[in-house]
Amino acid sequence: MNVPPPSKHQLALMIWLAVFPTLVVLNLTLGRLLGDLAVVPRTFILATVAVPIVIYGLMPHLHRLRGRLLGSY
């Protein structure tokens, strides 16, 4: 069965489901290391690490999961 692309709302939810836990884990693991940096460099470093994790690591899994969930109906 061919699953249509996600709607804007589905994609927003999928992105949130990938980004939020990634940022929590990164803040817990790198928080002390980056704690002395100003907000902009700290955010830059976190985003630089988080974006590839989300795009290449988590989003493909979420797309497959969505496909399995929608394909089962």
Write the topology of this structure.
Layout: H1 8-34, H2 39-71
Helix pairs in contact: 1-2
Please describe what this structure looks like:
The chain is mainly alpha-helical. Helices cover 82% and strands 0% of the residues. The chain contains two helices and no strands. It has helices at residues 8-34, 39-71. Helix 1 (8-34) runs antiparallel to helix 2 (39-71). The radius of gyration is 15 Å and the shape is elongated.
Give the strand tally: 0
Q: For the report, how would you describe the main beta sheet?
A: none
Strand content: under 5%
In one word, what is the shape?
A: elongated
- Figure out the total of helices: 2
Evaluate the radius of gyration. Answer: 15 Å
Report helical residue fraction: over 70%
Structural class: mainly alpha
Q: What string, H for helix and E for strand, traces the elements in order?
A: HH
Give the averaged pLDDT, no decimals: 94
Uncertain ranges: none
State the separation between the terminal residues, measured CA to CA: 10 Å
